[in-house]
Structures are given as C-alpha cells and as structure tokens.
Write a structure and sequence with these properties.
Blueprint lengths: L9 H5 L10 E8 L2 H8 L8 E8 L17 E10 L8 H15 L7 E3 L3 E4 L2 E13 L2 E11 L6 H4 L16 H20 L3 H10 L7 E6 L2 E11 L3 E5 L5 E4 L5 E2 L1
Parallel strand pairs: 1-2
Antiparallel strand pairs: 2-3, 3-7, 4-5, 5-6, 6-7, 8-9, 8-12, 9-10, 10-11
C-alpha cells in the first residue's frame, strides 16, 4: 500500500471477525496523539473491554523505554486494545510475551517462518525491527486495566537515523501486496487467542510459541533491567517469571519483561 491509500474502516475490520474479546468494538481515526491514550480515555465509559483503537497516524506514539514510534500516515498498522477485568485476572508478566507471539503469528500469515521475537516482544525479520509492542497497566475503578499498543511497519520503515536501529517493513518480505485490512484482522484474531491463553493460565502454549519464534535460546546476550546489566546465556523464557539467564558464575537470573532491553 502506498501512503495516502485507502484508510482502515471499523466496519471492514469487525465484519465476521470471529473474536470473543479483542475487537468486540473497533474505532478508526485519521490522526491521534496516541492510540494508547484513546483506550485509557475510554476505560471508564461503559463496556469497553476488548475495544480496539486504530489510527492512520500518531503524533505522539509511544514505544518502550520512553521512545517514540514513528510511522508516516497509511504506512503502518498502529493500534491499541483495552482489556478490563478483575484484579490479577491477566498475568502482568505473561501479557507482553503473549502479545509479541500474536504479532509474530500474524506476520507468519504473510511471510511464513520469517518473524523472529527479540526479548520481550519486538518482532524482527532478518535482524531488522518490523514491529514493537508497548503494554501499560493501570487500575480503573477497582478493575485491572491493560492497554496493549502495537506498531507494525507495513509498506515503509523509518531510516535508522530516526530510530537508532535498522528497521524493515512487511512489504519487503512478501511476494504479494501486504493489505493492511487483512493484516489487522489476522492480528486481532491471534491477539484474541493469546489473551484467552493468558486468562486461562495456559502458559505452556505461550512459552512454546515464543520459543518457536525466537532464536535467542542458547545465545549469549546482554540485558539491562531496572538499571542493572546482565550478561550470560539464555536458557529459557517463562511467561510467569521472565527470561531465564545463566551468567558466567553459574547464577540463574529471572529477568521480567517490563523494563528489560536487550543491548
């Protein structure tokens, strides 16, 4: 799709979507400050669990670690979904891992076997960043509120000078047009399924899917978390405890997804 192509429409996304929670209602905007902020603004307005907000462009799109997500209008999928429930109904550690898996699975629908997960939920192709996930938690009138924000480059990617790393877009890796509508629908379907796994405490399925999409197991990495830098070999990932790392002294560390960055 070229910039300025057909905007996404809620009715097209919702039609026979087949999800049970994510995408129960969909709103599309030409431009917003942040789709995450729209979700939070909607959290106290009636039955908004599963609301999905999309925008063609974000003026202040947020990324992890205080970074911004940059994408020109019409060139990316920019969406957030709001989840509301009883306190502790969604495991704080498992949600970002499950969300990353859902994005990778949606990408597989277009470019089978190409999506690679980098801890905790960046999606790469050939080492270049394709998509990122930002998960925010807040209390909302005594309920647990979770907003999952996703940015996925579809027809173009920002240059490295703008984001500090090499990025890519889906159009560079598929042999057919990467239609955003089809991609959004598939993404919501996979996210709905993986959030259902979290709610049902089906952490084994999330673990197996994450490992299947990541080449990090057995690799030596440096990870910064809560101001501390860890170096060692990745042993495994736990949806409940985080990345399991063995350092050079044989100590095992469980590094939570929140605030962790692979250096």
């Amino acid at each position: 799709m070229k910039p300025g192509g057909r905007p996404l429409a809620a009715a097209d996304i919702e039609a026979d979507l087949g999800t049970t929670r994510v995408g129960r209602s969909v709103i599309c905007f030409p431009e917003v400050d942040s789709t995450n902020d729209i979700c939070w603004d909607s959290a106290r307005q009636g039955d908004t669990d599963g609301l999905v907000v999309l925008a063609e462009r974000q003026r202040r799109g947020r990324g992890r670690q205080g970074r911004t997500w940059q994408a020109a209008a019409g060139e990316a999928v920019l969406l957030s979904t709001l989840l509301l429930g009883e306190p502790d109904s969604l495991c704080r550690e498992a949600v970002p891992i499950a969300a990353g898996v859902a994005v990778a699975e949606a990408v597989d629908s277009f470019a089978p076997g190409s999506a690679d997960l980098k801890w905790p939920n960046d999606v790469l192709i050939d080492g270049a960043k394709l998509a990122g996930v930002l998960v925010e938690h807040r209390g909302v009138d005594g309920r647990q509120g979770v907003v999952i924000g996703i940015g996925l480059n579809v027809s173009a990617a920002p240059p490295p000078g703008e984001i500090g790393q090499v990025a890519t877009c889906l159009a560079e890796h598929v042999d057919r047009p990467a239609a955003r509508l089809e991609l959004v629908r598939r993404l919501l379907q996979r996210l709905d399924a993986r959030i259902a796994d979290v709610a049902a405490s089906s952490t084994d399925t999330i673990h197996d899917a994450w490992v299947a999409h990541s080449g990090m197991i057995g690799r030596r990495v440096r990870i910064q978390s809560a101001g501390v830098c860890y170096s060692g070999n990745v042993l495994d990932v736990s949806p409940l405890e985080g990345l399991i790392l063995a350092d050079d002294l044989g100590h095992r560390w469980h590094i939570p997804a929140a605030g962790a960055t692979v250096l």
